[in-house]
Amino acid sequence: MAYMTPSQRETTGSWKFEAGIVGVAALTLTAFLTYMMMKQEAVRAEPVDHFVQSDYDAFDRNFELEGARCELGLVEQKICMHKSPMESDIVRGEPLPDYIPDMGTQFRVVVETSLKADQFRTVAYGQTLALVEPGSRYVQDVLHLTAPDFVSAQNSRLEPKV
Question: At 62, which CATH number?
């Protein structure tokens, strides 16, 4: 075996110590990432059959879009939602009136809202969202987005336009 000077022995010992620290750090990082991935899977959202606070919060209010004032919409998506005379005729727990089409809303609006159960379709009529069962046209839930807060948005009923 070759003779090693004291400085060479220190360098070899230092290298082993640093390699040990790197190994411990790698194991700690692996354990942390594994824990976070398991936690994320456990928290994954389940579809719901009603509107939630995050649906209300997803929309921007009172902003300017291309030089025009917009009361409600999605700034990043460049969507401004205007009032509709049909909004006041949509009632939670009743079927949609025959004269109101049962059409899904824009994909960009659906993406911004929370995951809904498969049997329902999110539809937008003016500044109101409705959760509708397509076959029966049954209105499961209604969310009036111009209300001042989420609770009011769920409970308010728009007055019919004259």
Answer: 3.10.450
